Amino acid sequence: MNTNNIKKYAPQARNQFRDAVIQKLTTLGISADKKGNLQIADAELVGETMRYGQFDYPKSTLTRRDRLVKRAREQGFDVLVEHCAYTWFNRLCAIRYMEIHGYLDHGFHMLSHPDNPTGFEVLDHVPEVAEALLPEKKAQLVEMKLSGNQDEAIYRELLLAQCHALHRAMPFLFEAVDDEAELLLPDNLTRTDSILRGLVDGIPEEDWQEVEVIGWLYQFYISEKKDAVIGKVVKSEDIPAATQLFTPNWIVQYLVQNSVGRQWLQTYPDSPLKGKMDYYIEPAEQTPEVQAQLAAITPASIEPESIKVLDPACGSGHILIEVYNVLKNIYEERGYRARDIPQLILENNIFGLDIDDRAAQLSGFALLMMARQDDRRIFTRDVRLNIVSLQESLHLDIAKLWQQLNFHQQNQTGSMGDMFAENTALAHTDSAEYQLLMRTLKRFVNAKTLGSLIQVPQEEEAELKAFLEALYRMEQEGDFQQKAAAKAFIPYIQQAWILAQRYDAVVANPPYMGGKGMNSELKEFAKNNFPDSKADLFAMFMQNAFSLLKENGFNAQVNMQSWMFLSSYEALRNWLLDNKTFITMAHLGARAFGQISGEVVQTTAWVIKNQHSERYQPVFFRLIDGREEVKKSDLLLRKNIFDKFTQHDFKNIPGMPIAYWIDLPSL
Question: Any idea where the Type II methyltransferase M.TaqI-like domain is (predicted)?
């Protein structure tokens, strides 16, 4: 797709949304001085009005304003601004995508008007939209419309109601009523110079046709931040901006089709799936010995619902979208009912982790949009996605939350004494659930730095799953304290459960960061846990993925080519050649990522099996010349193919480089 419009608009949008959020925070008495020091104005009750500094708000805003003050003190002013700016940017981008595709239930455009370049279609249909979104206020909104001068107030009500309506399907992106971010929705939304105009006018409708527009918007939204932190020691909160890179679609297809697709074709070689995968690479002719070895480990049958795929650095979900496409074909081949397939895939097959809250929001959104294409009722099915932004446990008041959770019913329900007790001894701290909770929370103290490199023992998977289900029940059925405590604990148990599972395929474009960019926590963790791959974050992700795989599962990634040749990765190569099996590689070199110019990023895409067969002959493609389109074309046409090497042959080359193109007689 053409990304020029997005590239121009998104960086400007970040600055516009940040400025708008700062302006709104200032009116709430929350600001920072020139040195970045937080300034909080006193809240003063004047009649039925709250006065924050010089500005008056309804008294009902106090609780939400207090939450913003708390966040500003915990996170810092700039982090709060960044978070709230991208929250509204993400929400409005999501609504824009849905209105263009006709996915809003009331059927009208929320941010634009099909017949009026500066209008809003919902304002022409207030009775119908109010009936759908805000029936209890319908009469009031219609009366306001008839007055002729309250469009801004009406529009604000309808837009917030739209966000509330989308909460059921997308709670990760749209909060329930009384979300504090609502106070920061920019002003003057219906004016011709509104912050919405850039979103509507800056990106034409044809650019919104594919869901990958969401990923491109995000990549360019953070581009200025990325430029600002590259080359420096990176703080935890800046790691996403420094390391995220949107993967070209053809590379994604190559990785997914040769891992997820390959697993299916090993068991069902005559499957019609093969004809739908342009980048699937047929295996080289193998010796009878290798063929027998492969036959012995190939399952006789596979149930589609049992296939589990993880992207441990999922970003905005581009890889998982292709996983969805391949799995959808597999389900259809097996005769599943079309409307059942999307929910089955989202709940059983696809898992994603990231350290970036906003990227995970967009990843979940992109997958739901894929599902919405195939099931028009998906938003009403209460789908429970397995896409998680890893959260840190450092700031939790664990003792208080455990007491409120009352997991073993140790407190008398309804006891006001229990509710306000300060020094009550914790009960059931010897229980399996409490011990599991404490082990889990300890693992995630530095989750925003270490991400999915954090290891959770597979033996805890069943226990975590059972505890997670119990927490979900308490979130729905418990008293108000239990609901709040369960909601607080669920993210940690869910992310631990995802990391405790083992997958049929791990597919990723992992973060790239050398030792010079690593902060002290990451550097120490690398040294202690990944001695063979500590030189770069991508190599640690490469090695760690095998610990997340089932035996015979596929590790499929695109990363820097340096691990193939440099002496600092010789131990890693030796470990791979002794323990794993190379299946296929597209050696891309420079200029495979069209958005990056020059020779700096030289990459390779590969699929390696979590099983060892030293006489297996992988299929390599040498695509180091030319620009992205040339590489893509050469891979499609199977040019520059090398398939005569066995795994064992690389061991005969000094230093064991993956030099697949040299002549075998020279070894």
Answer: 348-590
Q: At what angle do helices 628-636 and 249-257 cross, to 10 degrees?
A: 30
Give the pLDDT confidence score for residue 666 in this predicted structure: 60
Q: 261, exposed or middle or buried, with CB in 10 Å at 0-12, 13-18, 19+?
A: buried
Torsion angle (degrees, nearest 10) of CA 415, 420, 425, 431: 60
Tokens describing residue 587: 């050696």
In the chain, the amino acid numbered 10 is A
The per-type count for the chain, helices as H runs and strands as E runs, is 27, 14
**How many CB atoms sit inside 10 A of residue 624's CB?**
18
Amino acid 421: pLDDT: 45
State phi, psi for 379 to the nearest 5 degrees. Answer: -65, -20
Q: How far apart are the first and last CA of the chain?
A: 45
Amino acid symbol at 89: F
Strand residues in 561-614 grouped as ranges (E): 581-590, 602-609
Instruction: With CA atoms as reference, report the closest residue to 436 among 401, 465, 408.
Output: 465
- What percent of the chain clears pLDDT 70, i.e. is strictly above it? 93
**Which residue matches tokens 């006065």?**
51
Confidence of residue 422 (pLDDT cuts 50, 70, 90): very low
Closest to 559 (Cα-Cα) out of 627, 630, 510, 502: 510
User: Hey, where are the domains in the chain?
Assistant: 4-209, 243-389+503-659, 398-443+455-500
Mean pLDDT, rounded, of the chain: 93
Cβ-Cβ contacts under 8 Å for 366 (sequence gap 6 or more): 211, 212, 214, 215, 316, 317, 318, 320, 321
Burial label for 105, CB within 10 Å (0-12, 13-18, 19+), is middle
Question: How much is the average pLDDT of 456-477?
Answer: 97
**Residue (of 489, 437, 497) closest to 462 by Cα position:** 497
The more confident residue out of 417 and 349 is: 349
| Phi, psi of 388, deg, nearest 5 | -130, 135
| Distance in angstroms (rounded) separating the CA atoms of residues 253 and 632 | 11
- Which tens digit of pLDDT belongs to each residue from 558-584? 999 999 999 999 999 999 999 999 999
Please give the structure tokens belonging to residue 9.
């608009």
User: For the residues of 432-452, what is the DSSP string, one character each?
Assistant: HHHHHHHHHHHHTTTHHHHGG
390-416: pLDDT as tens digits: 999 998 999 999 999 999 876 654 443
Q: Which two tokens stand for residue 500?
A: 């405790």
Taking only the tens place, the pLDDT of each residue in 290-321 is 999 999 999 999 999 999 999 999 999 999 99
List, in order, residues 6 or more apart from 637 with CB less than 8 Å away.
none
Residues 6+ away with beta carbon under 8 Å from 656: 570, 573, 574, 577, 650
* Buried residues in 162-171 as b, exposed as e (16+ CB within 10 A): bbbbbeebbe
pLDDT tens by residue, 40-74 = 999 999 998 999 999 999 999 999 999 999 999 99
What are the two backbone dihedrals, phi and then psi, of residue 58, each rounded to the nearest 5 degrees?
-60, 150
Report the CATH architecture of 243-389+503-659. 3-Layer(aba) Sandwich (3.40)
pLDDT at residue 97 in the model: 98
Give the long-range contacts of residues 104-110, CB within 8 A, separation 24 or more.
Answer: 104/162, 105/132, 105/165, 105/379, 106/132, 106/133, 110/158, 110/159, 110/162
> Is there a contact between 313 and 458 (Cβ–Cβ < 8 Å)?
no
Residue 434 zone, left/alpha/beta (φ > 0; ψ -120 to 50; rest):
alpha
Residue 131, CB-side half-sphere exposure with 13 Å CA sphere: 7
